[in-house]
Amino acid sequence: MSRPVALVTGASAGIGDAFARLLAARAYNLVVVARDVARLEALAKELAATHKTDVEVIGADLTDLEQVAKVEARLASTESPVELLVNNAGFGLVGKAADGDADGDRRMIALNVDALVRLTHAALGPMVDRNRGGIINVASLAAFQPTAEMAVYGATKAFVLSFSQAVYEELRDTNVAMTCLCPGFTRTEFQERAGAEADRMPDFVWQTAEEVAEAGLAGFEKRKAVVLPGLLNKATAGIVSVTPTTITRRVAGLLARNFD
User: One of 19, 28, 144, 153 is an active-site residue; which one?
Assistant: First the structure.
């Protein structure tokens, strides 16, 4: 029997790389997407040797609509159809809105929101027609409250969480699944690229990319709408959900200022 195909964006590092490795071990063939083609090709070579996995490489900057269209076309293909889409690509920027880079914020919204929505649309039509398949959208623990000094990033992830849960309900009477994965602090290249100081947070709050991806796949297989990996992240989201926004917003602001 042919293997199912999974398409993973942001697969060159971090959580996306971890998803690709776990899916290859689960006997998926892969389509891996990122800007760094050299990393993708090295990953493809490794997974082919280790798991006999077929890996297609698509080099694409998903802040560019023309390059998003390449991935949309692959998702729409009826030859070797994609059974699982992992919308993992994203980035964040740290800093006050008054001092921020408007173009950087535009690119963040283009990647974290627009590309994710476009790829979700491209994947869902064929999946619903076949009445099978699914999508994992990667949001963040930051989706649950306003995030001072990462205001745009937190807002993009709040969008992903809301959008994913709404689509989950739309798919309830189908065999197509939608899961939103909301990691907390995860040891990846994200912090360096965002300009954040990773060493200011204690060790106990951190998870590995592999732990996060494992939790995401486990939740997806159970058709969960939202997955919060780790007890600390579950507890944090639970506390936030029952605490008035005026308090959580204030606490987040105080934390941001104390870490400056």
Answer: 153
